[in-house]
Amino acid sequence: MGTVVEEKWRDAGYDAAKFPEIAAAALARFNAPERIDPIRLLQSIESGAVLARQQDAEGNFSNLPLTVFNSTRFFIDIYFWLHGTTVIHQHAFAGAFQVLSGSSLHGHYDFRPKRAVSPYFAIGNLSLKKSELLSKGDIKQIIAGRDYIHSLFHLDNPSTTITIRSIGLPNAQPQFVYLKPGIAYDPFFQDPGILKRTQIANVLLGMHHPKADKIIKNMLSRADMHTSFELLSTSHSHLSHDESTRFAGLSDKPQTWESLLETVRDKHGAAADLFANALSELRRQMGLIERRRYITTPELRFLLALLLNVQGRKRILRLVRQRYPEQQPVETILDWVEELSRIKSHDGSTNALDLEGFDDVDLQIVECLMKGNSLTSAQAELRKIFRHESPRLLNQKTKSRYEEIQRNSILKPLFSSN
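RESULT FIELD:
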């Protein structure tokens, strides 16, 4: 396969724009999923087969990356994924990948910049263009740069992919990572000034120093937009938990986070709200990823993948229908939600939905929210279903739980119309 790719690309004058098509054609021609058994590959290495020069010996990408072919301009890797999910990213190289085993949820995004703060940081609008299920044999071309921004959530354990990829292309640098709803940054950019300021914030907050918020606010008042985001990100990791108890001695002000955010808002305007939304969404995503450690049922892991990567009930319902064509998607999701409500969180403090005391009324409210029903409509619907309940008390409970469930960070993608 490597020899054929080398010949085809040489004949094309090593044109990087043509490499994705050449790589994809080679994957299709050689039908790797039917000819390569990933486990037998591992056994051959264990039994003494000579390794090619490894491009990622440390294993920074995937649980186990194996380079199986090297050329001067490209190489072929096989990746093993156990619990891995990739961030939203673009590539500084070109090529193609194919699913060898397992399946993945693949998201394709578009980023429209509003402001390029620096060569390493930009703000704008990030939108999901397409969500699709990838299974064994599926092939995707990798286009270098912003034309191919994507993420992968690996559904099976393990999932394996084979990738034919060029070495880094200078005109496709930097290799941005993206945060919803619209931040692009270079994860490989290291600025000592930013690093030391975020380390200062981390130490002060970690030791609950009484002047931490004042010192951080002073740094924020003089910081550029990129530094401001990194300082807020560090602060958010500390302050997003139980601020009232953990940080009671940090400051006389109970709204430490809001105070820091207001400082950024005074200097950088609406960017402060974009940063706050991005950090809130990032925390939501990390919570969903953490749930993968104790939720192992394939169907529930698929639901977690949808809640992590897909926004909008129509898209989610379409993907459920595609993966489980013999089932009704709304009823299927409700069954999964009910199962999650019975699973204790990792620390045992609540359930996997972060909705304590979840019952039949709550499940009906979830269905109403998925259908886009208003609170009034939901109350009327529940009065018909739970006729033995006091209408007044049922209305009160429905109102309270409707608002709580609507705000629930885990389930909110189910309730969005787009």
